[in-house]
Write a structure and sequence with these properties.
This protein is mainly α. The protein has 31 helices and no strands. Helices cover 74% and strands 0% of the residues. The two termini are 38 Å apart.
Length: 689
């Protein structure tokens, strides 16, 4: 739809006219918004982004100032964007009355602490009635914003956490405490103590999760918005197609590469699916992939973007904050595991293409690599700026600021150079009118990117605020230690069983929580047990929980990225999710490999690192081949069965067992290669399963 298209007969504005391309929930919400509201959303979004840029690159703010102002902006945007009765219904008088009350609550929630911070600190522990009242308003406002922007599941978990904190003989809900099992019982908290924890302290709403969202995450979300608005997204997608499109299953391989690149910045597997998938899924279907396969590949690849540096959704920042390990080290150790995962998805794509006898796209259907670079080489500069500043040990918040500045600079300089040096040769002389038009267009793009970045950050910031409520309750009641004790008891001290319990818990949490929130809740609950009881190094424990927190994107019955991909592919959601689950097998195997082979993360002697990396690649390749029944040619049933125990041996923390497993897998690969070479001609055509 054109950006110049007029408003419709009801006076609403299209989603592109205000804030560029948006996720589905924002897109549907915009469809019923009147002009004044959309303009107000844009103004507030631009103001929020400018505040974040100012605090990141010019003048830093204290902890409570930064987080409370950020939350105030986010809550106001949430209640403007998402009407009380749903995104597809107009508010009406009743709706405006309700939303007006919540907008006042949102404003007061964010800015009450800013206005009264010194007085609140001076009376710490002896809260005034107004402090408690504002804390109750803030908690209710955050939960309602969560219901609208994140989903009912997260809101219910937050309400349950609050009820649990108040249950107990000394709590505000003593009767509820009588229903608690012995291991979960606690003395209970009164309202003053709970509000002091959730709103007036550093361990609740304004705790670490919101702190990370209000600083590092927002800057990189805004960076992604600037890349999108300036056309960098299209450049990277075209680059992936130009590099891989001619190979068998080319669009599917391009989907893996492009989704990894964009997903590492976008911070959302679902958003990645609906953007890159809009290009890749139809092309995959045209080449011969089934609709469910095309959707599954895109969902698995987009999930890989969430574990791919530099952003890793919001995981790299959170892990750094929780472990006190520098961000650049988290990114460095995450590169090889991310390559293993994406390489596994890429291999699945290749095997499916070879089984079905697919061909690549013709040169006429693909962008030329030279032309792609010529049109968008400037977008590589911000990535070098980002990597260089990270290596120079700048804070991630400052890195995001300068990365955004570099995007604006290279886009502006490229446009100016084209107008001054290239357009005159094309018969378009430089005039004041053309300069004015370019300046207006540049300002429009700048406003669009600022507004889009703020809107894209709403859901993750609100999810982090609710996660802060949950974390605050865990700290107040001691639930984390109790949960860890339960996990140790249920697993009987068996590490593999404990990891399976973590995987199950992450899947259940993922049904109601976004990935970032699921990670935060899970690491608070099971992290202590993994580190202290089972001896897993702290960094590996966090990486394992973070990787497992991604499984709700691709694991039925609730596979959010799989469902989004099925909508684009026109396939059945559950069938698509099963395909995504199959292609994303590395998501389950690689974390376990980290646990039993910690050298892959923590480092060690060079021969050990080479050996560990080699057997990891070998295990993943043969495991993918065994699932599909094909590598260089068709795998016989015996070889497929042998792969399973040999893969288990690779994971065994004993060199002799690893050596035997690697030898068996290498023999399977060599035998299959020999058979494939002996067949000579193209393999027998069979439909991919």
């Amino acid at each position: 739809m054109s950006k110049n298209q007029p408003a419709d007969e009801q006076g609403t504005m299209t989603r592109h006219q205000v804030a560029g391309d948006l996720p589905d929930n924002l897109r549907s919400a915009d469809a019923v918004q009147p002009w004044p509201v959309l303009i107000l959303i844009t103004v507030i979004g631009v103001a929020m982004s400018l505040f974040q840029l100012y605090s990141a690159g010019i003048q830093t703010f204290g902890l409570f100032y930064q987080r409370s102002i950020h939350l105030g902006f986010v809550l106001v945007l949430a209640f403007l964007i998402f009407p009380v009765f749903g995104p597809r219904r107009r508010r009406g008088l009743l709706g405006w009355l309700v939303d007006g009350a919540f907008l006042v609550g949102a404003f007061m929630t964010g800015f009450y602490l800013t206005w009264n911070l010194d007085a609140i600190i001076n009376r710490a522990g002896f809260w005034s009635p107004m402090d408690i009242t504002m804390g109750i308003v803030a908690t209710l406002t955050v939960l309602e914003a969560s219901r609208r922007a994140v989903g009912l599941g997260m809101t219910i978990i937050g309400i349950v956490a609050i009820a649990y904190a108040l249950a107990g003989p000394r709590g505000a809900l003593p009767t509820l405490g009588e229903w608690m099992p012995g291991v979960l019982s606690h003395r209970g908290a009164n309202m003053d103590r709970l509000i002091g924890q959730l709103y007036l302290g550093q361990e609740g709403i304004f705790g670490l999760p919101l702190g990370v969202a209000a600083t590092y995450v927002f800057m990189f979300v805004l960076f992604g918005a600037f890349l999108e608005v300036t056309g960098a997204g299209k450049f990277f997608i075209d680059l992936a197609f130009a590099a891989t499109g001619r190979r068998p299953g080319g669009p599917a391989k391009a989907a893996v590469v492009a989704s990894a690149g964009m997903g590492s910045i976008s911070g959302s597997a679902i958003a990645n699916v609906v953007t890159t998938g809009a290009f890749t899924i139809p092309l995959m279907k045209r080449l011969g992939y089934k609709a469910k396969q095309a959707g599954g590949i895109e969902a698995a690849a987009s999930t890989g973007g969430q574990i791919t540096p530099p952003l890793m959704g919001a995981g790299a920042f959170l892990i750094s904050e929780y472990t006190n390990i520098p961000y650049v080290e988290i990114v460095a150790v995450s590169i090889f595991p991310a390559i293993l995962y994406l390489g596994t998805v890429y291999l699945f794509v290749h095997i499916v293409a070879m089984k079905a006898g697919m061909k690549g796209m013709s040169a006429s259907e693909l962008p030329q690599l030279r032309a792609v670079f010529a049109s968008g080489w400037q977008f590589i500069v911000p990535l070098f700026v980002l990597i260089g500043l990270l290596m120079a040990a700048y804070s991630p918040m400052r890195v995001g600021f300068w990365a955004i500045v570099s995007v604006v600079a290279v886009a502006g300089l490229r446009t100016l150079a084209t107008m001054v040096f290239i357009d005159p040769w094309r018969g378009q002389p430089l005039t004041l009118d053309r300069l004015w038009e370019a300046a207006v267009l540049g300002l429009t793009k700048l406003i669009e990117a600022l507004a889009l970045g703020a809107r894209n950050a709403v859901s993750v910031s609100i999810a982090c605020a609710v996660a802060g409520i949950i974390v605050g309750v865990v700290g107040l009641t001691g639930l984390g230690l109790k949960f860890s004790s339960m996990m140790v008891a249920l697993s009987g001290g068996n590490l593999v069983l404990a990891l399976l319990l973590v995987l199950l818990a992450s899947l259940i949490l993922g049904m109601g929580l976004p990935v970032t929130a699921a990670y935060i809740v899970l690491i608070v609950l099971v992290g202590p047990a993994l580190s202290t009881e089972f001896g897993i190094p702290l960094l590996i424990a966090h990486l394992v929980v973070f990787w497992y927190s991604q499984d709700s994107n691709v694991t039925p019955p609730v596979a959010l990225a799989g469902f989004a991909a099925s909508a684009v592919a026109g396939s059945k959601p559950m069938e698509t999710s099963l395909q995504a689950w199959k292609f994303a097998k590395g998501l389950y195997l690689i974390p376990m490999f980290m646990v039993f082979n910690p050298e892959i993360i923590l480092g060690g002697p060079l021969p050990v690192l080479i050996w560990t990396g080699a057997i990891a690649i070998l295990a993943l390749v043969t495991f993918a081949a065994a699932i599909e029944g094909y590598l260089f040619t068709w795998l016989d049933p015996v070889s497929r069965l042998v792969v399973i125990p040999a893969t288990v041996a690779i994971f065994w923390p004993a060199f002799a067992v690893e050596l035997v497993g690697a030898a068996v897998l290498a023999a399977v690969v060599a035998l299959n290669w020999w058979k494939g070479r002996g067949e000579g001609a193209a393999p027998q055509q069979r439909r991919a399963g």
